[in-house]
Amino acid sequence: NAGVTQTPKFQVLKTGQSMTLQCAQDMNHEYMSWYRQDPGMGLRLIHYSVGAGITDQGEVPNGYNVSRSTTEDFPLRLLSAAPSQTSVYFCASSYLGQREKLFFGSGTQLSVL
Amino acid sequence: AQTVTQSQPEMSVQEAETVTLSCTYDTSESDYYLFWYKQPPSRQMILVIRQEAYKQQNATENRFSVNFQKAAKSFSLKISDSQLGDAAMYFCAYSRSNYGGSQGNLIFGKGTKLSVKP
Protein backbone atom coordinates (compact mmCIF):
# COMPACT_ATOMS: atom_id res chain seq x y z
CA ASN A 1 0.00 0.00 0.00
CA ALA A 2 1.88 3.08 -1.27
CA GLY A 3 -0.41 5.75 0.28
CA VAL A 4 0.19 9.24 -1.13
CA THR A 5 3.10 9.46 -3.57
CA GLN A 6 4.64 12.77 -4.62
CA THR A 7 7.16 13.21 -7.39
CA PRO A 8 9.72 14.62 -7.70
CA LYS A 9 11.15 14.96 -4.18
CA PHE A 10 13.43 17.84 -5.20
CA GLN A 11 13.33 20.25 -8.15
CA VAL A 12 15.22 23.35 -9.19
CA LEU A 13 13.67 25.66 -11.77
CA LYS A 14 14.64 28.88 -13.44
CA THR A 15 12.26 31.82 -13.32
CA GLY A 16 9.66 31.51 -16.06
CA GLN A 17 9.92 27.75 -16.47
CA SER A 18 6.89 25.55 -16.14
CA MET A 19 6.54 22.23 -14.39
CA THR A 20 4.04 19.83 -12.88
CA LEU A 21 4.24 18.37 -9.39
CA GLN A 22 2.69 14.94 -9.36
CA CYS A 23 0.51 13.48 -6.62
CA ALA A 24 -1.05 10.04 -6.70
CA GLN A 25 -2.92 8.04 -4.08
CA ASP A 26 -4.02 4.41 -4.15
CA MET A 27 -6.62 4.53 -1.37
CA ASN A 28 -9.58 5.61 -3.52
CA HIS A 29 -9.82 8.88 -1.59
CA GLU A 30 -12.29 11.41 -2.94
CA TYR A 31 -10.62 14.42 -1.29
CA MET A 32 -7.17 15.61 -2.38
CA SER A 33 -5.37 18.84 -1.64
CA TRP A 34 -2.13 20.76 -2.11
CA TYR A 35 -0.39 22.79 0.59
CA ARG A 36 2.75 24.86 0.54
CA GLN A 37 5.05 25.27 3.51
CA ASP A 38 7.24 28.32 3.87
CA PRO A 39 9.61 29.04 6.78
CA GLY A 40 7.73 30.59 9.68
CA MET A 41 4.38 30.33 7.87
CA GLY A 42 3.09 26.84 8.58
CA LEU A 43 1.20 25.07 5.80
CA ARG A 44 -1.20 26.96 3.58
CA LEU A 45 -3.80 25.48 1.27
CA ILE A 46 -3.32 26.08 -2.47
CA HIS A 47 -6.07 24.04 -4.16
CA TYR A 48 -8.28 21.13 -3.28
CA SER A 49 -10.62 18.65 -4.92
CA VAL A 50 -13.59 16.68 -3.58
CA GLY A 51 -13.77 14.33 -6.55
CA ALA A 52 -12.83 13.76 -10.18
CA GLY A 53 -13.69 16.82 -12.26
CA ILE A 54 -14.15 19.08 -9.20
CA THR A 55 -11.50 21.51 -8.00
CA ASP A 56 -11.54 24.68 -5.95
CA GLN A 57 -9.16 27.33 -4.67
CA GLY A 58 -7.62 27.48 -1.26
CA GLU A 59 -5.90 30.33 0.55
CA VAL A 60 -2.98 30.89 -1.87
CA PRO A 61 -4.02 29.75 -5.39
CA ASN A 62 -2.33 32.42 -7.53
CA GLY A 63 0.29 31.06 -9.91
CA TYR A 64 -0.95 27.46 -9.67
CA ASN A 65 -3.34 25.36 -11.74
CA VAL A 66 -4.85 21.99 -10.92
CA SER A 67 -7.08 19.44 -12.57
CA ARG A 68 -8.57 16.16 -11.40
CA SER A 69 -9.30 13.82 -14.28
CA THR A 70 -9.08 10.65 -12.18
CA THR A 71 -9.71 9.79 -8.55
CA GLU A 72 -6.06 8.74 -8.11
CA ASP A 73 -4.17 11.76 -9.47
CA PHE A 74 -4.11 15.46 -8.58
CA PRO A 75 -1.24 17.26 -10.35
CA LEU A 76 -0.21 20.80 -9.47
CA ARG A 77 1.01 22.95 -12.37
CA LEU A 78 3.25 25.98 -12.23
CA LEU A 79 2.86 27.71 -15.59
CA SER A 80 5.59 30.34 -15.12
CA ALA A 81 7.66 29.76 -12.00
CA ALA A 82 8.64 32.69 -9.80
CA PRO A 83 11.13 32.89 -6.90
CA SER A 84 8.17 33.46 -4.56
CA GLN A 85 7.08 29.91 -5.33
CA THR A 86 10.20 28.47 -3.71
CA SER A 87 8.69 26.27 -1.02
CA VAL A 88 7.99 22.75 0.13
CA TYR A 89 4.80 21.37 -1.39
CA PHE A 90 2.65 18.73 0.26
CA CYS A 91 -0.17 16.71 -1.22
CA ALA A 92 -2.76 15.20 1.12
CA SER A 93 -5.83 13.01 0.67
CA SER A 94 -8.68 11.48 2.62
CA TYR A 95 -12.12 9.98 2.29
CA LEU A 96 -14.68 12.75 1.91
CA GLY A 97 -16.50 11.75 5.07
CA GLN A 98 -13.26 11.33 7.03
CA ARG A 99 -11.46 14.62 6.50
CA GLU A 100 -10.07 14.30 10.00
CA LYS A 101 -7.99 11.34 8.79
CA LEU A 102 -5.76 13.10 6.30
CA PHE A 103 -2.84 11.26 4.67
CA PHE A 104 0.15 13.37 3.62
CA GLY A 105 2.74 12.73 0.95
CA SER A 106 6.42 13.17 1.76
CA GLY A 107 6.67 16.57 0.08
CA THR A 108 8.46 18.20 -2.86
CA GLN A 109 11.21 20.75 -2.21
CA LEU A 110 11.04 23.30 -5.03
CA SER A 111 13.60 26.04 -5.60
CA VAL A 112 13.04 28.73 -8.22
CA LEU A 113 16.15 30.70 -9.12
CA ALA B 1 -12.24 33.39 9.07
CA GLN B 2 -10.73 30.79 11.31
CA THR B 3 -7.20 31.34 12.61
CA VAL B 4 -4.73 29.25 14.57
CA THR B 5 -2.02 30.83 16.72
CA GLN B 6 1.04 29.17 18.18
CA SER B 7 2.77 31.74 20.35
CA GLN B 8 5.95 29.76 21.05
CA PRO B 9 8.27 29.67 18.02
CA GLU B 10 10.77 27.51 19.91
CA MET B 11 10.70 25.35 23.03
CA SER B 12 13.28 23.21 24.76
CA VAL B 13 12.90 20.31 27.17
CA GLN B 14 15.23 17.99 29.01
CA GLU B 15 15.01 14.32 28.14
CA ALA B 16 12.48 12.50 30.36
CA GLU B 17 10.85 15.78 31.39
CA THR B 18 7.41 17.11 30.44
CA VAL B 19 6.74 19.98 28.06
CA THR B 20 3.55 21.76 27.01
CA LEU B 21 3.07 23.42 23.63
CA SER B 22 0.40 26.11 23.37
CA CYS B 23 -2.20 26.70 20.67
CA THR B 24 -5.17 29.03 20.49
CA TYR B 25 -7.71 29.30 17.72
CA ASP B 26 -10.54 31.50 16.65
CA THR B 27 -13.81 30.22 15.20
CA SER B 28 -17.53 30.83 15.38
CA GLU B 29 -18.30 27.19 14.60
CA SER B 30 -19.43 24.70 17.23
CA ASP B 31 -18.46 21.54 15.35
CA TYR B 32 -14.81 21.16 14.38
CA TYR B 33 -11.63 19.15 14.77
CA LEU B 34 -8.29 20.13 16.24
CA PHE B 35 -5.01 18.41 15.48
CA TRP B 36 -1.37 18.31 16.46
CA TYR B 37 1.05 17.29 13.72
CA LYS B 38 4.73 16.47 14.16
CA GLN B 39 7.23 17.25 11.41
CA PRO B 40 10.70 15.77 11.99
CA PRO B 41 13.69 16.74 9.82
CA SER B 42 12.52 14.15 7.28
CA ARG B 43 9.65 16.69 6.73
CA GLN B 44 7.00 13.94 6.83
CA MET B 45 3.77 15.22 8.41
CA ILE B 46 2.81 12.84 11.23
CA LEU B 47 -0.51 13.09 13.04
CA VAL B 48 0.16 13.07 16.78
CA ILE B 49 -3.30 13.53 18.22
CA ARG B 50 -6.80 14.59 17.21
CA GLN B 51 -9.64 16.14 19.22
CA GLU B 52 -13.29 16.41 18.24
CA ALA B 53 -14.83 19.61 19.58
CA TYR B 54 -18.05 18.00 20.78
CA LYS B 55 -16.11 15.56 22.96
CA GLN B 56 -15.37 17.03 26.37
CA GLN B 57 -12.84 14.37 27.26
CA ASN B 58 -9.29 15.31 26.39
CA ALA B 59 -7.62 13.07 23.81
CA THR B 60 -4.62 10.96 24.83
CA GLU B 61 -2.16 8.95 22.76
CA ASN B 62 0.50 7.25 24.88
CA ARG B 63 2.87 10.02 26.10
CA PHE B 64 0.91 12.72 24.26
CA SER B 65 -2.18 14.37 25.69
CA VAL B 66 -4.10 17.56 25.10
CA ASN B 67 -5.78 20.13 27.29
CA PHE B 68 -8.82 21.23 25.29
CA GLN B 69 -10.56 24.30 26.67
CA LYS B 70 -13.43 24.96 24.25
CA ALA B 71 -14.70 28.14 25.86
CA ALA B 72 -11.21 29.61 25.95
CA LYS B 73 -10.46 28.27 22.44
CA SER B 74 -7.25 26.74 23.69
CA PHE B 75 -5.70 23.43 22.64
CA SER B 76 -2.34 22.68 24.26
CA LEU B 77 -0.22 19.56 23.74
CA LYS B 78 1.57 17.92 26.66
CA ILE B 79 4.46 15.56 25.96
CA SER B 80 5.41 13.44 28.96
CA ASP B 81 8.71 11.60 29.43
CA SER B 82 10.23 13.46 26.48
CA GLN B 83 12.49 11.45 24.21
CA LEU B 84 15.20 12.52 21.77
CA GLY B 85 12.94 11.37 18.94
CA ASP B 86 10.33 13.94 19.95
CA ALA B 87 12.55 16.74 18.63
CA ALA B 88 10.66 18.22 15.68
CA MET B 89 8.40 21.01 14.49
CA TYR B 90 4.91 20.73 15.93
CA PHE B 91 1.93 22.23 14.16
CA CYS B 92 -1.49 22.86 15.59
CA ALA B 93 -4.29 22.68 13.01
CA TYR B 94 -8.04 23.23 12.79
CA SER B 95 -10.73 21.97 10.44
CA ARG B 96 -14.39 22.88 10.50
CA SER B 97 -16.07 19.55 9.85
CA ASN B 98 -16.28 16.59 7.52
CA TYR B 99 -19.01 17.76 5.26
CA GLY B 100 -18.91 19.31 1.81
CA GLY B 101 -16.88 21.97 0.02
CA SER B 102 -14.19 23.83 1.87
CA GLN B 103 -15.26 22.46 5.20
CA GLY B 104 -12.61 20.12 6.41
CA ASN B 105 -9.67 21.95 4.86
CA LEU B 106 -6.91 22.31 7.44
CA ILE B 107 -5.82 25.67 8.82
CA PHE B 108 -2.36 25.47 10.38
CA GLY B 109 -0.53 27.50 12.97
CA LYS B 110 3.02 28.62 12.25
CA GLY B 111 4.58 25.86 14.30
CA THR B 112 6.74 25.37 17.39
CA LYS B 113 10.23 23.95 17.09
CA LEU B 114 10.86 21.56 19.96
CA SER B 115 14.40 20.66 21.00
CA VAL B 116 15.11 17.80 23.39
CA LYS B 117 18.33 17.97 25.42
CA PRO B 118 20.01 14.72 26.49
How much helical structure, as a percent, in the residues of chain A? under 10%
As residue ranges, the low-confidence spans of chain B are none
Strand content of chain B: over 45%
Mean pLDDT of chain B: 92
Query: How many beta-strand elements of chain A?
Result: 11
Report on the biggest sheet of chain B.
Answer: 6 strands, mixed
The major sheet of chain A is characterized as: 7 strands, mixed
From the alpha carbons, calculate the radius of gyration of chain B and give it in angstroms: 14 Å
The helix-strand sequence of chain B is EEEEEEEEEEEE
Distance between the termini of chain A: 36 Å
Rg of chain A (C-alpha, Å): 13 Å
Distance between the termini of chain B: 41 Å
Helix content class of chain B: under 10%
Write up this protein.
The complex is a heterodimer of chains A (about 110) and B (about 120). With about 110 residues, chain A is mainly beta. Chain A has no helices and eleven strands. In chain A, strands 2, 4, 5, 6, 9, 10 and 11 form a seven-stranded mixed beta sheet that branches. A four-stranded antiparallel beta sheet of chain A has the order 1-3-8-7, with no helix packed on it. Chain B has strands at about 5, 10-15, 20, 25, 35-40, 45-50, 60, 65-70, 75-80, 90-95, 105-110, 110-115. Chain B is about 0% helix and about 50% strand. The termini of chain B are far apart. Classes of the chains: A mainly beta (about 110), B mainly beta (about 120). The interface of A and B includes residues 42, 48, 102 and 107 of A.
